[in-house]
Structure formats: structure tokens, C-alpha cells
Amino acid sequence: MTGPGEYVPDVTEGITRVEDLPRPRIERRSRNWPARSCPRCHRRAGRYATGSRTMHDLGDARAERPVDLVVTFSRHRCLRCGCCFAADIADLALPYCLYTRRVQQRAVRLVVEAACPTERPVGTSGAIIASSPPTPPSRTGSRRLGRKIQPTTSSSYLDEALADFSGYLAIDEA
Q1: Phi, psi of 142, rounded to the nearest 5 degrees
Q2: More exposed terminus of the chain, fewer Cβ within 10 Å: N or C?
Q3: Are 56 and 68 in contact (CB under 8 A)?
Q4: Given its phi and psi angles, is residue 126 left (phi above 0), alpha (psi -120 to 50 degrees) or beta?
Q5: What whole-number distance in Å separates Cα of residue 8 and Cα of residue 3?
Q6: d(CA 82, CA 36)
């Protein structure tokens, strides 16, 4: 059994064939109601059909398997104004997305953490110096004592972090 903070290697590392990947665990969720309030006229709208949608969620760390959510939702029609709508599942995923909000948030967080430095700069005496926001250079190139000011901020850390980044995230968005 693994404990908190203990490094556990990924079991899928090195697998090149899709058939060798572990099968996803299926979790079923329901957003199926007999009637909902119409978003247009706020009257009772009865259910006329049901639908289902499969979304990929974060994997199960203990079983080392991916998780697929199968959400069953109801479709409603208002008899007064004729409005047709589906039960809201926006708490799980955005419309037309194959991945849940948790997956999207984790992907964005990992990209941001990889692109931003986590260490504070160290001064010449070895003490940690306070990092102040860089001042943007003047359009006219302000001068002190007759010399043009050179920019003091270095973006090499960002260049290194983004060197291997292709520019695409592994999330689906509408």
C-alpha cells in the first residue's frame, strides 16, 4: 500500500499498443428527472426522452485504471411555449467536451506549473532576494547619465519551459 507523498511509477509508462492499456472503470451518474422548470417561461416541462453521454474523468489511483463517466440525462419539452431542453450537466463537463472539468483543470494546472518558475531568485550573497515585477521598458528608451537602460529581466526560464511545449492542450473545447 502506498502512502501520501510516496512516488508511485505510472503502470502505463512504456506501453505502445492501445490494446495493452488497462480497461476504464465505468461509473454511472444520473441526471434523469420526470419534470424540470422551463428556462424560458418557468412552467413545468415534462420529460419526453432520455439520453446518455460518456466522459473521461481522472483515473483511479488505487486501481491504476482510467475512469469513464456515463451520464444519463433527461430531455424535456414545455407544452406551453414549445421549448425543448436537456437536463443540465454543466457541473460535470462543458457542452461538447469529452473530458470532465476536473481533467481540464488538472491539464491547465500542469501546463502552467511547467511554464512558470517555482524557485525564487538567489542574490550574490546567497540570500533570497525579493522579486519585484519587472518594469516595462519605455517606448523612447529612457536614459540615465546619457546611457540607454538595458532590460534587466530575463525570460530564459520561460524559454526553457516552453521549449518542448507543442502549443496544444489535451482537452476538448467547444
Answers
A1: -60, 150
A2: N
A3: yes
A4: left
A5: 10
A6: 14
Neighbours of 92 (CB within 10 A): 18
Region 45-72: mean pLDDT is 88
pTM given for the model: 0.56
Distance CA 68, CA 70 (A): 6
pLDDT of residue 161: 60
3-state per-residue secondary structure call for the chain: CCCCCCCCCCCCCCCCCHHHCCCCEEEEEEECCCEEECCCCCCEEEEEEEEEEEEEEEEECCCCEEEEEEEEEEEEECCCCCCEEECCCCCCCCCCCCECHHHHHHHHHHHHHHHCCCCCCECCCCCECCCCCCCCCCCCCCEECCEECCCCCCCHHHHHHCCCCCCCCCCCCC
Burial of 8 (0-12, 13-18, 19+ CB in 10 A): exposed
